[in-house]
Amino acid sequence: MYSSYKNSQLSFVSRRQWLQRAGCGLGLLGLGDLLVDDSSSLLADDLPEQITSVDDLNPLAAKNGHFTGKAKHVIWIFINGGPSHVDTWNYRPALDKWNGKTIREFDDGFKNTTGFFKNSVGNLMQSPFRFSPRGESGKMVPEIFPHLGDHVDKMAFILSGHTESNNHSPALFAMNTGLPRMGYPCVGSWVTYGLGSENSDLPGFVVMSDPKGRGLPKGHAANWSAGFLPGVFQGTYLRPTGDPIANLNRVTGVTDQGQRQQLGLLEKLNQIHLDKHPEQRELAARIESFELAYRMQMSAPESLDIDSEPEHIHRLYGVGDNRCDHFARQCLTARRLVERGVRFVQIYSGGMENQRSWDGHSDIEGNHRQFAGETDQPVAGLLADLDSRGLLDETLVVWCGEFGRLPIAQTGAKPGRDHNPHCFCAWLAGGGVKGGVDYGASDEVGYKAAEKMVHMNDLHATLLHLLGLDHEKLTYKYNGRRFRLTDVAGQVIHDIIA
After folding, report:
1. Nearest by Cα to 282 from 39, 26, 17, 22
2. Residue 399 three-state SS
3. Residue 180 and residue 173 in contact, taking contact as beta carbons nearer than 8 Å
4. Residues 348-373: pLDDT tens digits?
5. What pTM did the predictor assign?
6. What CA–CA distance (Å, rounded) separates 217 from 357?
7. CA pseudo-torsion sign 3, 274, 201, 247
8. How many angstroms separate the CA atoms of 367 and 357, rounded?
9. E-assigned strands of 34-95?
10. Helix residue ranges, H only, 94-144
11. Rounded distance, CA 483 to CA 491, Å?
12. Which of 72, 39, 79, 127 is nearest to 467 (CA)?
C-alpha cells in the first residue's frame, strides 16, 4: 500500500490506483466509468446503485425467490461416472428379446463413435440384474436397490434425459453448470446466489466427494465452481479424510479476541476502499467470506459431528457397515446441514474413471453391484430420516449422473457398457415432487430418449422452479451479457410437480 497525507488525514492508495494515476490519465478514467456501467450485480435488479457500507449487503443472507417455492433445500446425490439407466431405473424388458443381436438391427443409424471406445462395440445385452415391482406404483426396481425400492412412491423418475457429450469432463460440466465447458457457475452456486442461506454461520453450498481414495470426479473443483459469480457462492468442499475443512481450527496462540481484532482491522481497511469505490459490489462478497470463515470455527464442528447422533440413526443410514459406512456418514452429514439451514448439498458417489466410479466399462454387473451397495441404504436412510423429521417436504433430493450407458455390451473378459449421451435417467423426491410417477420414455432397448425428452436445462429449470426461482429471471450480468443457468433454453417439467 502507498499512502499520502491530505488535510492531515491518512488516505490509502492501492498499487493499482497508483499506476492508474501515474500512467493512464483521464482517458482510462473515462473507460473505467464505462466499465462500471457494465459491472455485475449480486442480486439481479434489486441492488442499490452503490454500496456505501460493508454492512449494506451480506450476499449469503436468506432471500425471497421470485415466487413461493415448494422446496427450501437441495441434496444432490451425484452418481459419478454415468450410471446405466437400463440396469437401474429404466427397466427395458425388450432387451431380453434383443439380447445378443446387433444394435444395427434395431437402429441402423448407430455409429461406433456414439460411445467412447469405438473398437469395443458388442451386441445388445440384457441387464444382469433381476427386476421386481415395488411400492403401490409397481415401479420395476433392480435387485441392487433393496432399500431404495421401499421409497419409489416418493420418487418422480425422469426416463428420457439426454445430453450432448459422451466424455466425462464436458458431460459433468454440462450437468453441473448447463454448459459442457468449464468456467461457468454450477447449479449450487446459482441457487445460493438466488436464495442465500438460512444459516449465517455455515456455508450456503457444501460438497462432499468419495472418501475411499478413488479421487475427485473429472474436472475436479470446477464442478462446484462459482464461475464468474462472486467466490462466496462456490461450493465449500468437505475433505473426505482428516479435518473436513482446512484451517477450521484457530491457529495456536491466537485468541478469539485477537482474531476478532484482526478481522475488525480488515473491515476498516475495506471500508476505506469501499468509500472510494462504491460501485465495486463484489467487495461485500469478499468481506463476507472472511466473516463466514470466522463464524464457521464455532458452528461447523458441531454441525459435522455425526457421532452425536443416536445409535438407531446410525443403523438407519448404515454407519458402521464396512460396505457403506463412508457414504452413510456423508448422507447423515447432509441431513444435519440442511436441518441447520444450508441451502445446497452435493455428494459424489465414486471418484475418477472406470472401476473407481459408476463408469462400468468392464464388468457392469460387478461395478454397479458394488456402488449400489455403497449408496442404497445410506440414500434410503436419508429419505426416511428427512421424512420422519418433516424435512422431506422442504428438501429436494436428486439422484442423477452425467449421462447414461449404452444397451450394448462393451467387449472384454467381463462385459461392460460404454457411455451413452442419448439417454439417461434421474429421480427426484421430496420438495414438492409427485411420488411414484415416470416421466418420459426411451426406446424399447434404452438407446435413445424417445418420448417427452428432457435436457439438463429442463432439469435445472425444474429444480429452480421448485425452489421458487424463475430460471429465465435468475440472471447475472457478465461481460455485457446477462447469463443464466439454463442459458437460452430450459422448460419446467410441470408434470412431476405436485
Report:
1. 39
2. strand
3. yes
4. 999 987 889 999 999 999 999 999 99
5. 0.84
6. 9
7. negative
8. 8
9. 73-79
10. 94-98, 103-106
11. 17
12. 72
